[in-house]
Hints:
single chain; alpha/beta; globular; 7-stranded parallel β-sheet; Rossmann fold
Amino acid sequence: MTSIEGKVAVVTGAGRGIGRAIALDLARQGATVALVARNASQLEEAAQAAGGAARPMPTDVRKRDDVQRLFDEVAATLGPVDILVNAAGVGVFGRVVEFSDEDYDAILDTNLRSIFMTCRSVLPSMIARGKGDIVNIASIAGKVGSATRAVYCASKFGVVGFTQSLAEEVRQHGIRVSVVCPGSTDTSFSSDPNREGKSRGKMLSPADVAYAVRTLVTQEPNSFISEIILRPTQKP
Length: 236
């Protein structure tokens, strides 16, 4: 395993759930972590849990100007980004005939468009330095469709396709772009009807996803794991 001691990492969705677990794990491995989400109080709490190895940077990753300000601040205060983890995500579920335009925009802007904007922001520096790791958190819902999840699945299928294409675009520059597709994970997606009746004790934990991300960013430089599909041992 390659050490990430002293590397600069940016983690979106870092205020709670999977993103928070990833950010704290990277901080424990010695990275300096920019914690990114909209909720400032959640970021402050996560920064305290990281023990000084993380900096809260409240940002709405759905907005281009906010994303630009974020990476300008990271470059000025922490240095060039070595690791970008896109874990920000929202889920709204329901039948297509009843789905609102507002919910559609919120899902696509958060789950997919934000990834495009953050990747576009870090890539020039990574290409110039000939190295970098980008990890996008998708979902099993990015591999298999299911009822009442059409828009959510569309966003996650988009994440998988975007990641695969970007990986081929930049791998010659020494940049690794990977996607993690977790199955049922014990987070706050309580409105998902597909979770009704499932046992939380059998679900993945956010720490399981964080471990997968750690595996990706600590690979030896000549190896490249492009995709991890992560499932609970037992069906919840």
